Amino acid sequence: HLRKGTLKLDRVDTLVLDEADRMLDMGFYDDIAEIVATTPDSRQTLLFSATYPDEIKTISASMQRNPCRVSVAATHTKSRIEQVFYEIAGKDKRLGALITLLGHYSPASCVIFCNTRQQCQEIADALQARNYSVLALHGDLEQRERDQVLVQFSNRSCSILVATDVAARGLDIKDLEAVINYELSPDPEVHVHRIGRTGRAGKAGLALSLYTAAETYRVNAIEDYQESPVSVADIDSLHAGHKHVPEPPMVTLCIAGGRKNKVRPGDILGALTAGPGITGEQVGKIDIFDHQAYVAIERSIADQALEKLSAGKIKGRYFKARKLR
After folding, report:
1. What are the residue ranges in the chain where pLDDT is below 50?
2. pLDDT by residue (tens digit) across 213-248?
3. In angstroms, how far is CA 124 from the centroid of its own chain?
4. What pLDDT shows up at residue 302?
5. Measured between alpha carbons, how far is 168 from 162 in angstroms, rounded to an integer?
6. Do 250-323 and 1-72 have the same topology in CATH?
């Protein structure tokens, strides 16, 4: 619209850049910079970011004039989070150590943090090849793909989420059992954000971190930031056995109709529970988007629910439905 001249921003007096670090990770910087360049120099610019690395400082310098910085201290309750650090012999031992952690602790829900998009996808692929229930969340995903990943993890259709820090921004999963740092972040503040996703609402959490001897300085930085020593354990002392992460209790069904089709959660629930066979207790979280809807179903009746949705009507109409892997 800007290029066609159908949108003019010459009267903008306040510009808000929210989650600026996520903007960087998702690859939107050039587009945002092009938009900002069309606004008046006299505007007020507000920039918000959960972390403040050098890249964000560069954005601030290019888009703000004499900014006033306001910092808010993190409020995570460290005492409810059990942190354990494991030193590994080298980078080539990292994947094996991760599988040992998953086998030993066997969390029902777990977020694995990586430092790069490529690493994130490679780890997800490696775990999928070993039959783990896992999805990746990073900046290379399209919005529709990102929505599906978040829906499946939040409704318990997926056990493991492998994510980059910024792609997971705002992720708030109820009763998340564990966070695993596949590689320590160079920023101790980011580390605190990572582990703060477990141990919420007064519940206990588990944070497991892998590091090499060459990365010990990152452990020291975390200790300085937290003003307390960390617990270091021997990865070889763990017994992974043959346990895998438990199979997720739910399966997600995707319906080709959403908010634009006037579809509401109650309509989907009614379509599933009409007649015998499926009860309301077997239906989980329902998410409605503009053109799709997602419903979590107990794994044991997923095929039955899919058949019911495919053959029946929602709000008097037939909609295609499919089962997400």
Report:
1. none
2. 999 999 999 999 999 999 999 999 998 765 555 689
3. 13
4. 96
5. 9
6. no
Give the pLDDT of residue 201. Answer: 72
pLDDT at position 202: 76
Distance (Å, rounded) from C-alpha 157 to C-alpha 150? Answer: 10
Which residues are registered as beta bridge partners of 321?
A: 255
Degrees, nearest 5: CA angle 134-116-242: 35
pLDDT at 287: 92
Q: What is the pLDDT of residue 318?
A: 95
Q: What CATH number should be reported for the domain whose range is 78-237?
A: 3.40.50.300
**Nearest one of 207, 211, 236 to 107, comparing CA atoms:** 207
Cα gap 227→70, rounded to integer Å: 22
Q: Are 257 and 244 in contact (CB under 8 A)?
A: no
Handedness of CA 297, 300, 303, 307 (dihedral sign): negative
Class for domain 1-72, per CATH?
alpha beta
* Whether the Cβ atoms of residue 151 and residue 83 lie closer than 8 Å to each other: no
Structure tokens at 150: 């978040």
> d(Cα 63, Cα 60) in Å, to the nearest integer?
5
CATH number of 250-323: 3.30.70.330
Buried b (16+ CB within 10 A) or exposed e, 80-106: ebbbbbbbbeeeeebbebbbbbbbebb
What residues does each domain of the chain span? 1-72, 78-237, 250-323
Residue type, 314: I
Residue in 252, 249, 258 with CA at minimum distance from that of residue 324:
252
